[in-house]
Design a protein that fits this description.
Largest sheet: 4 strands, antiparallel
Helix content: 55-70%
Radius of gyration: 19 Å
CATH class of the largest domain: Mainly Alpha
Shape: elongated
Number of domains: 2
Number of helices: 8
Distance between the termini: 32 Å
CATH architecture of the largest domain: Orthogonal Bundle
């Protein structure tokens, strides 16, 4: 039996660091929150408060899928000469690496392609991570070439090209401003981790 107890706010950091490995090793995971706010996670539900949290096959496949996506990003980054950490930052903010993500506005898949953008770049299976990634990177590269500026290209990726052209800068849309900030922040974090290792 393996049991971990986390106190918020440290729980989020610990889960991010160790949960993928723990999930892959443990099979089905169970959790409960006690009266002091501690989160208990175990692979053996020896307390009646435990409830299923992550099913066995899902937990085993999670780590493999995450590695596969990161490998696809590295290869595509090399192919299109776009820093893979920048691509990962966009994906993290857009879909949190969920290849089946659907936004309220209709953006689809890993890189959250709108249907017309997917068609433009020849993506017929938007929920296929490789196809979505190819189309998303080609689209982003074209925006980088068009605007010649990372922040404007990110803004255009989020809000579309016309608003960036109209304002000649990042449009003052809260969602777009936040998107650009989040991607840049995530990119810097990934770069720091890459060069630290």
């Amino acid at each position: 039996m393996v049991e971990w107890v986390f106190k918020v706010p440290f729980m989020v950091l610990i889960l991010i660091m160790v949960l993928p490995v723990f999930r892959a090793e443990a099979g089905t995971l169970y959790k409960y929150v006690d009266s002091e706010g501690c989160i208990h996670v175990s692979n053996i539900p020896n307390d009646p408060r435990y409830r299923p949290w992550l099913e066995g096959e899902k937990s085993k496949n999670y780590l493999e899928e995450r590695r596969r996506l990161h490998s696809l990003v590295e290869r595509a980054g090399s192919k299109y000469r776009i820093n893979p950490d920048l691509i990962k930052a966009i994906i993290k903010v857009e879909s949190d690496f969920n290849p089946e993500a659907i936004s309220p506005k209709g953006a689809l898949g890993l890189m959250q392609l709108m249907p017309e953008t997917a068609r433009r770049w020849g993506v017929s299976r938007v929920f296929d991570p490789e196809e979505n990634l190819e189309g998303g990177i080609q689209h982003f590269k074209s925006l980088l070439e068009q605007f010649g500026d990372l922040r404007k290209a990110l803004a255009a990726y989020n809000a579309g090209e016309q608003p960036v052209l109209r304002y000649r800068n990042i449009p003052p849309f809260p969602e777009t401003v936040q998107f650009v900030q989040l991607v840049i922040s995530e990119f810097k974090k990934l770069q720091a981790q890459r060069y630290k290792n």
